[in-house]
Amino acid sequence: MTIEFYLNEVEFAATKILHAIWHEHSEYKKMNKELGELFQKTTSEYEKKQAVAHQKNNPFILYSWWNNSEELKILFDRNDKLDLLKRRIRARMFAVNVLAGNLLQIAKQGISITHGDSQNCPDGRQIGSQTLKSIIWHGRNQSLHWEEGKLRPEAVNCFKNLCREHGLAQFGMFKSQNLGFAVINILGWRTFENFKSDMLLLDKIDEACLPKDIIPI
């Protein structure tokens, strides 16, 4: 089997997963923006009252406001919304990373079915100092096995290189959380066509389909 044949069979599933990933990520970004705005509103109200109390050297102003103010009720309400938003954001990002891990599983399985293992697979393009096949292989393993706390040395080295070349902010937590989304993001897999063009770099020539007088180089 070639990867091109495999891709034809998984196109529907991969397309749906990619759509879900980027939809959920878009929702996550909206929530994160709302979280920032709510946090600013929540803290600014308190800081204003604190500044007035300090300016007048009268802490009772803050104490009185703290016990009686309608503004404080609004502040508490905003804090409740902040807590809810934080939980919703964590849930969204968890879903995004699980979906991304599923896509990496589809990619890794294409390599396994076509080549047996990554050693027999073409390298594909370079992403920094590493090959496409390496990032797919180890990215999938990290996404599936990070909770076990026993990543293979090859996977650890892969993510250390990603940290060095693409930033700790994206890849520094590889031992403590699923980084499936960070991996597909660095690969640029936003559509099935992006995914397919990369996977075809890992294809092999199906010798059975070649004319008998052509010898593969």
Structure description:
The structure is a single chain. The protein is mostly helical. 73% of the residues lie in helices and 2% in strands. The protein has eight helices and two strands. The chain has helices at 3-55, 59-68, 70-115, 132-145, 153-166, 168-171, 180-187, 192-200, and strands at residues 126-127, 130-131. A two-stranded antiparallel sheet has the order 1-2. A hairpin with a 2-residue loop joins strand 1 (126-127) and strand 2 (130-131).
Helix/sheet category:
mainly alpha
What is the H/E string?
A: HHHEEHHHHH
Q: What is the makeup of the main sheet?
A: 2 strands, antiparallel
Tally of contiguous helical segments: 8
Mean pLDDT: 86
Biggest sheet strand line-up: 1-2
Gyration radius, to the nearest Å?
A: 25 Å
Portion of residues in helices?
over 70%
Spatial shape: elongated
User: What percent of residues are in strands?
Assistant: under 5%
- Low confidence ranges: 207-217
Tally of DSSP β-strands: 2
Q: Nutshell version of this structure?
A:
The chain is mostly helical. 73% of the residues lie in helices and 2% in strands. The chain has a two-stranded antiparallel sheet.
Summary keywords:
217 residues, mainly alpha, two-stranded antiparallel sheet, 8 helices, 73% helix, disordered C terminus
